[in-house]
């Protein structure tokens, strides 16, 4: 058999990252150098807390810029973007916040270029970057990798679904990934965001659309991200925040170029129907999806090998408590955090079939290593309930 460290190029592939990325402690101080020349008015999108964004607000204030604040209190919707778009003029959109704030900034950029309210019809378009104001993002959570992706997830206007706006307009021009900005997040936010990054790396590595490029990013990051998340939560050590930030960034690059899987497909449907944080859903769905994929009659030796690689990475961080289950130690740790089960967010047994059916055709579900059918997704939901 081919050793795992050998890369076999089965077919041609492409990759892109049009965002200029600056990574490392203190890089937020580069912000003023990245603003467009002559900029006077800036829209700053931030989360509810003032703590994480304080260094960035100080930079902008000391530069004498006219700053319009847009506060993102929750995961964005088409309506919340339309409510925020009444801005006379801005030379640049700056986002300093978590995934919801970044998606808000991305969608606001599209709305300002459109010059009119967004509608659900905008989900079906490819939004071009021509004519858009510059967009610079500074993530304050280590999880979504949204700083390097070309989509923004919004709650739809006329349904409970969460759908993505897509296209070059959603790709930030620059990202300043500074671990120093991430350390003020509450523990629950760190847990949910970190689990999202772990799941994204695993699903990007096992995706049916994975490439040598995405595997090179996601593979090593599975164990390192999980270990960093554990250490940050258990010791509060600032030394490992860079590893956690890199785990998030690598997952964003990998998913943008290789796709995800059924855990994210289910989470997209559940997130539109229940008040559950996206990362919490993904973290709870990860193990049942991996098991369902392994149990599928369509699971090949190659797919099994990929999932085993991920399981081994997990087991190296959390020693198995059951010798027959490589991920048993991880599942015990997750339950101890605690990570709520799906019933906590309101999912009922009688709703499982409908959710599973809706998730079959979700974009991420279609990129799972094996396309899971509605009955298989229903079992995943039952296992996570």
N- and C-termini, Cα separation: 39 Å
Q: What proportion of the residues is helical, as a percent range?
A: 40-55%
DSSP E strands, number: 8
Which strand order spans the largest sheet, edge to edge or round the barrel? 1-8-5-4-2-3
| Alpha-beta content class | alpha/beta
**Biggest β-sheet, characterized?**
6 strands, parallel
Unreliable runs, pLDDT <50, ≥5 residues?
A: 1-8
Oligomeric state as shown: single chain
Range of strand content: 5-15%
Mean pLDDT: 92
Q: Compute the number of helices.
A: 13
As a whole number of angstroms, the C-alpha radius of gyration is 20 Å
How are helices and strands ordered from N to C? EHEHEHEHEEEEHHHHHHHHH
Which of globular, elongated, flat, extended, rod-shaped describes the shape? globular
Which helices and strands occur, and which strands form pairs?
Blueprint: E1 20-23, H1 31-34, E2 41-47, H2 54-62, E3 66-72, H3 78-84, E4 92-97, H4 99-114, E5 135-139, E6 151-155, E7 162-166, E8 174-177, H5 187-206, H6 212-235, H7 241-258, H8 262-273, H9 278-295, H10 301-317, H11 328-336, H12 352-359, H13 374-384
Parallel strand pairs: 1-8, 2-3, 2-4, 4-5, 5-8
Antiparallel strand pairs: 6-7
Helix pairs in contact: 3-4, 5-6, 5-7, 5-9, 6-7, 6-10, 8-9, 8-12, 9-13, 12-13
């Amino acid at each position: 058999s081919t050793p795992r460290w050998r890369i076999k190029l089965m077919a041609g592939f492409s990759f892109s990252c049009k965002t200029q990325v600056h990574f490392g402690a203190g890089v937020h101080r580069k912000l003023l150098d990245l603003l467009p020349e002559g900029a006077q008015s800036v829209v700053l999108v931030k989360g509810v807390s003032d703590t994480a964004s304080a260094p960035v607000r100080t930079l902008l204030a000391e530069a004498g810029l006219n700053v319009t604040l847009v506060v993102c209190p929750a995961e964005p919707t088409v309506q919340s973007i339309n409510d925020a778009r009444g801005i006379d003029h801005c030379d640049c959109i700056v986002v300093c916040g978590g995934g919801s704030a970044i998606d808000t900034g991305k969608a606001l950029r599209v709305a300002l270029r459109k010059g009119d309210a967004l509608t659900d019809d905008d989900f079906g378009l490819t939004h071009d970057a021509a004519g858009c104001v510059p967009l610079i993002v500074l993530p304050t959570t280590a999880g979504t990798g949204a700083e390097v992706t070309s989509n923004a997830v919004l709650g739809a206007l006329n349904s409970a679904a969460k759908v993505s706006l897509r296209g070059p307009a959603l790709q930030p021009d620059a990202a300043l990934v500074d671990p120093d900005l991430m350390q003020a997040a509450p523990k629950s936010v760190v847990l949910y965001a970190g689990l999202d990054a772990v799941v994204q790396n695993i699903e990007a590595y096992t995706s049916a659309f994975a490439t040598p490029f995405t595997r090179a990013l996601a593979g090593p990051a599975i164990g390192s991200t999980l270990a960093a998340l554990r250490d940050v939560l258990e010791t509060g050590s600032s030394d490992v925040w860079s590893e956690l930030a890199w785990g998030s960034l690598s997952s964003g690059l990998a998913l943008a170029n290789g796709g995800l899987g059924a855990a994210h497909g289910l989470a997209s449907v559940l997130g539109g129907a229940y008040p559950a944080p996206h990362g919490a859903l993904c973290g709870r769905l990860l193990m049942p999806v991996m098991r369902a994929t392994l149990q599928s009659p369509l699971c090949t030796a190659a797919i099994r090998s990929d999932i085993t690689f991920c399981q081994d990475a997990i087991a190296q961080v959390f020693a198995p408590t059951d010798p027959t289950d490589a991920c048993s130690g991880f599942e015990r740790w997750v339950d101890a955090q605690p990570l709520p089960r799906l019933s906590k967010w309101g999912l009922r047994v009688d709703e499982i079939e409908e959710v599973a059916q809706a998730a079959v055709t979700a974009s991420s579900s279609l990129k799972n290593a094996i396309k899971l059918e509605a009955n298989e997704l229903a079992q995943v939901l039952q296992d996570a309930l």
